[in-house]
Amino acid sequence: MIIVVCGVAGVGKTTVGRLLAEQLGWEFYEADDFHPAENIDKMKRGIPLTDEDRGPWLERLRQLIKRCANAGTNAVLACSALKKAYRDRLRVSADVKFVFLRGSRARIAVQLQTRRGHFADPAILDSQFDDLEEPRPPEPALTFEIMDNVHDLVAQVRTKLGR
């Protein structure tokens, strides 16, 4: 199984994804590590990425997911996957499960302002919400509201996934 933890910048994808992978004993991947240098430069400057910018990045992630699925390797991937088309592109098989993290713009803005060690300028948050297409039925995805206690959130995710 490959679990893709998705949502806007600053929602906690990496924190939740790392903890989930650690608890499950699975591989963890950070989608930001697969961006071309040009994308990282844009995000550092607070310039929103376009669909064209994201194309090669999504293809790298799709190939990673395919490799994991073909090898039977369980993994957790932290990836924005803001649009349904992006999630559809990454859903290479029924073994790919999406966990969408949702929170208010105000709360996420605070989290984004206080995080350290990430290249993205907090100014990209508005464009992230502009691009966001929250998963809606019949799209197969589990949605969770973010909360203060990440351990409780991961426990909820594990319960819903049967893990």
List keywords for this structure.
47% helix; alpha/beta; Rossmann fold; 5 strands; 163 residues
Describe the fold and architecture:
With 163 residues, this protein is an alpha/beta fold. The chain has one domain (2-161): P-loop containing nucleotide triphosphate hydrolases (Rossmann fold), CATH 3.40.50.300. 47% of the residues lie in helices and 15% in strands. It contains 7 helices and 5 strands. Strands 2-3-1-4-5 form a 5-stranded parallel β-sheet. Helix 1 packs across helix 7. The longest helix has 21 residues, at 51-71. It is globular and about 40 Å long. It starts with a strand and ends with a helix. The mean pLDDT is 92.
Quick structural overview:
Helices cover 47% and strands 15% of the residues.
User: Terminal Cα separation, in Å?
Assistant: 11 Å
- Overall domain count: 1
Low-confidence runs of at least 5 consecutive residues: none
How much of the sequence lies in strands comes to 5-15%
Largest sheet features? 5 strands, parallel
CATH class: Alpha Beta
Strand order of the largest sheet: 2-3-1-4-5
The CATH architecture term is 3-Layer(aba) Sandwich
Outline:
globular
Query: Helix content range of the residues, please?
Result: 40-55%
Q: How many alpha or pi helices?
A: 7
Average pLDDT, rounded to a whole number, is: 92
Number of strands: 5
Q: Name the structural class.
A: alpha/beta
Element-level helix/strand string: EHEHHEHEHHEH
CATH fold label: Rossmann fold
Question: Can you tell me the CATH superfamily?
Answer: P-loop containing nucleotide triphosphate hydrolases
Radius of gyration: 15 Å
